[in-house]
Amino acid sequence: MLQHAEAPLGHGVVDAVHDNVGTVGTVVDAGADGTLVDGRVIGGETVEELTRLLFDGEDRDRVHRPWRRLIATEDFAHRPGLAHAERAALSYERLRLVNDTVTGPAAEALAYDARRLAALHEWTGFVDGGVCTLASIHYNLFLGSLLDHDGYRRDLTDYTSMERLGTFLCTELAHGNDVAVLETTATPDPETGGFVLHTPNPGARKFMPNTSLTGGPKTALVAARLLVDGEDQGVFLFLTPLSDAGGHLPGVHVRALPERTGTPVDHCMTSFEHVRLPREAMLEAAHGRLDKDGQLVSNLGNRRKRFLRSVGRVTMGKLCMSGGTLGMARAALAIAVRYAHHREVAAPRAGERIPLSAHRTHHGRLLRSLATAYAMTFLHRAVLDRWCAHEPTDPRQREEAERLIAVAKGWITWQARDLTVEARERCGAQGLFPANGISDLLFNVEGGITAEGDNLVIWAKAGSELVFAHEAGPGPDHTPAGDLTDLRFLRDLHACVERGWQTRARAALRGGPSGDPVGRWNETSGAALDMVAAHARVAAADAFLAAVDRAATPEARLLLEQLARLFLLHELRPHTGDLLAAGHLTPAQVEDLHPTTDRTIAALAPHLMPLVDAFDLPPEFLATAPIANADYLDRFGD
């Protein structure tokens, strides 16, 4: 069976391919048209500068290096042949190794440090998707929520030491994206002064939390509807022990769910039968406290706002999921690029063999994916900066930052899926074997797309806000002008695309059927979602261009300029009709889009390896994936 289709090329075409590809590791001055031409050698200094730009600059040692060092150990090496339950248990063992580096106050600090917490997911996700999931639950949703409320009043030692593992129970079998109307109840208990936690019907069972006995004793934060004197006061979190060394506690009913795709986690269905909790079980803060008479005191006037405040850690969870899938996509591409250089195929000349990377059909697709991976990384860094810099007491700043995080989460995780599929396909049949480090990643990316807010739903919410929340476009009274090698011009064209979809969405919303909110949104949603996608691309473009400006060496800057150009050109192709109709592109520019893209790919082709070397994957990790190594023919199947 043919696993790699090679084009029937003539000798002259092959010669041209060799001329274009050149020798990896050479090059780079800028020609008059902005392309790269033969010149200086791209060495370790350039790769190091690219790595610095990708991984938080001078903060790299604090944010990234500890996690990189951890996953390079033998404890995180690929272990073939494990059963589902064994793999789930291994993820808990590795989670404890993570915790060994951050015990005590450091674990609390990690929950507050958005950059380090997101980086933890970025580095562990591609070696063990289960660790990525469990870390997000324990450190962010559980420990972070405790600290965000009146956590300073509690002794958290059991959780920071992992004597007890934390989990988070919010989604219900009947309530996923509409979890704000969840049905689990917490009712004040007049006999004890505490609460009674109860699951009133089968649809209210908590869906998919990791509540089995695997991993050790666990305590949950359970999202439940507070009923005071029979009146619904909104959803709050309640600290609820689930199990101890003897098993699940009385009234806690746990049933394992069927196996799912991706790295195994002990997902379960969990319900409560009149479980009594102490008064201090309720997590309180300004958005909701019970006074001495048992009445709710809140600085928020409606139940929905109280719910959103209670589960506010979901926003940080979006950054964690984005980071996890981002790391997976980069790892998949790094393996695929290495394989493209190691794998040789027959050339038209008898007896000659050339690497897969010699073919434009192969290296062109990988380069487009690499350009997107760089854009994803720079966007993730920019969004984290925005989140860390926002003023928590300013509702507008927080709302804008949360919306940007949601937009970025959707775009990054969807792009990660596309890139992982591309990497797998470029490795042919070899990419189907988990031992080669790619095939399992796709299923884990799928989990990130759904976790912490299904992408389509959070984009629909962002779209409904962005229709009028800001003015899209390159700026008032500004008409883009330039040529297809001008990065600022290309960026502004994407902003014009966003403005076009915003104009359509506004017209649809205003012209939709009155008195029918669902009907009006149905008329608007298509244009609104395209507007959100364009908004994400503009944000990625801005982050990419900012990284270009920060480059400290001319070689790194030129490579980034070419990568940014490739990203912007490729993403522009579906929108040339709109831009031509609006007068932002000329017919000649539309005709020149493909040749300009192709020249950009040709200029970058010699640098596939340096571009993925900048991802800084540990050699120990790459050594475990046979096709990532030159001796893969001798190693595969051992």
Low-confidence stretches: 1-40
As a percent range, the share of helical residues equals: 40-55%
Number of E strands? 17
Helix-strand category: alpha+beta
Give the distance, in angstroms, between the N- and C-terminal Cα atoms.
Answer: 22 Å
Overall average pLDDT? 91
Tally the helices: 23
Largest sheet: 6 strands, mixed
Strand content bin = 5-15%
Shape: globular
Description:
The protein is of the alpha+beta class and 638 residues long. 53% of the residues lie in helices and 11% in strands. The protein has helices at 11-21, 44-54, 60-63, 65-71, 84-100, 105-112, 114-124, 129-148, 157-160, 303-310, 313-342, 360-389, 395-426, 439-450, 455-469, 487-511, 517-550, 554-572, 576-581, 587-604, 608-613, 619-623, 632-635; strands at 29-30, 36-37, 165-169, 185-188, 195-198, 206-207, 218-228, 231-241, 243-244, 247-248, 252-256, 268-272, 275-277, 289-290, 296-297, 344-346, 353-355. Strands 3, 4, 5, 7, 8 and 13 form a six-stranded mixed sheet that branches. Helix 12 (360-389) packs across helix 18 and helix 13 (395-426) packs antiparallel against helix 14 (439-450). The chain is globular, with a radius of gyration of 26 Å. The chain starts with 10 loop residues before the first helix and ends with a helix.
